[in-house]
Amino acid sequence: MNGVYMVVGVVFVAWFVGGIIRRKQHKNKIIQVSDNDCIGCGRCVKRCNHHVLALMHDGKCNHLVIRNPDKCTGCGDCIGKCKFNALKLVEKNKNHH
Asked: pLDDT tens for residues 16-58?
């Protein structure tokens, strides 16, 4: 039984440390949407815990917009949910404020 606790502990520590490293690597990154590739499915919106992304309906279809760019941590969780390669991380610059 102690082995199970040890394995769970190691997995938790690896997950936690990995998250810290990922945040440091993406500190100066922000999400960018490729409108040509996005189909408006909303999978990325549901995955974003920081409420950065939103779907807007224009009467014909949904379009993904970056609602709160200042809240984007560059974690990339939304990218993992996009099956259409419509999202990527780019360097933050003055145009993203």
From this structure: 777 666 655 556 888 999 989 999 999 999 999 999 999 998 8
Q: Does the model's pTM come out above 0.70?
A: no
Amino acid letter for position 34: S
Alpha-carbon distance of 43 to 85, in angstroms, equals 12
Q: How far apart are CA 7 and CA 9, in angstroms?
A: 5
C-alpha separations of 70 from 27, 30, 49, 97 in Å: 12, 9, 14, 7
For the chain, the DSSP string reads -HHHHHHHHHHHHHHHHHHHHHHHHTTTEEEEE-TTT-----HHHHH-TT--EEEEE-SS-EEEEES-GGG-----HHHHH-SS--EEEEE--GGG-
Q: Is the pLDDT of residue 97 over 60?
A: no
Structure tokens belonging to residue 65: 């917009």
